[in-house]
Amino acid sequence: MLPIEAEALSYAAGGVAILQDVSLRIEAGPPLLILGPNGAGKSVLLRLLHGLLRPGRGRITPEAPTRGAMVFQRPVLLRRSVGANIRYPLALAGLPWAERRRRAAAALEEVGLAALADRPARRLSGGEQQRLALARAAALAPPVLFLDEPCASLDPAATRAVEEIIAGIAARGTKIVMTTHDLGQARRLAGEVVFLHRGRVVEAGPARPFFNGPASAEAAAFLQGDLLW
Ligand SMILES: Nc1ncnc2c1ncn2[C@@H]1O[C@H](COP(=O)(O)OP(=O)(O)O)[C@@H](O)[C@H]1O
Ligand SMILES: [Mg+2]
């Protein structure tokens, strides 16, 4: 699956250009954070990379119906127990019963939901639901995991719990590709960044130099909190 190579992607909707000439390469390594002001095109780019949308122009390799797993801002959970939410996709993936049990138990343990395994998933709090969505994705051990603002509707404590889980998934070798509007979170998690502005990649590279001294005026303004759209 890796590297994923996006070449000169363009995407338009309703005659409006949303992404223009976006090229990037996703390689194994620490998390890649896609940053940029509201409306920059981060969510659309993530959906293109995962395969939920098809680019109008350009191409993404490897070609596949979908690449990796994805977790959304608002988790989509089955009307079943917490444990069943994890085991179901493992069954779809063809894993044998004992392996499904083993992986589901390990994933629930990792996100601190083992005690809630028999609860209806949709009754969990927002933070617990997002941890479950991450556990479900991580149990599949995907080579790459796309996360679209996974903490956008969570409070600070739930956000920190989710960040720890994401760091754990990354440490076990899954490439994280994630959007966030939370710069503190981006600094904590990012190994590399792609900075989008008005549908174009303005900067891309290792996180530390980007945060310490961005090359572009747009990124500098964004990091100072001046560039809001
Ligand atoms: N299906 C769509 N039809 C029309 N416009 C869209 C569609 N999806 C996204 N957009 C527009 O594209 C721009 C980028 O959206 P998005 O990727 O959600 O931004 P971000 O995630 O960076 O905030 C926004 O102006 C949004 O309104
Ligand atoms: Mg978005």
From TrEMBL:
<dbReference type="GO" id="GO:0005886">
    <property type="term" value="C:plasma membrane"/>
</dbReference>
<dbReference type="GO" id="GO:0005524">
    <property type="term" value="F:ATP binding"/>
</dbReference>
<dbReference type="InterPro" id="IPR003593">
    <property type="entry name" value="AAA+_ATPase"/>
</dbReference>
<keyword id="KW-0547">Nucleotide-binding</keyword>
<feature type="domain" description="ABC transporter">
    <location>
        <begin position="4"/>
        <end position="223"/>
    </location>
</feature>
<dbReference type="InterPro" id="IPR003439">
    <property type="entry name" value="ABC_transporter-like_ATP-bd"/>
</dbReference>
<dbReference type="GO" id="GO:0016887">
    <property type="term" value="F:ATP hydrolysis activity"/>
</dbReference>
<keyword id="KW-0067">ATP-binding</keyword>
<dbReference type="Pfam" id="PF00005">
    <property type="entry name" value="ABC_tran"/>
</dbReference>
<dbReference type="GO" id="GO:0022857">
    <property type="term" value="F:transmembrane transporter activity"/>
</dbReference>
<dbReference type="InterPro" id="IPR015854">
    <property type="entry name" value="ABC_transpr_LolD-like"/>
</dbReference>
<dbReference type="InterPro" id="IPR017871">
    <property type="entry name" value="ABC_transporter-like_CS"/>
</dbReference>
<protein>
    <submittedName>
        <fullName>Amino acid ABC transporter ATP-binding protein, PAAT family</fullName>
    </submittedName>
</protein>
<dbReference type="InterPro" id="IPR027417">
    <property type="entry name" value="P-loop_NTPase"/>
</dbReference>
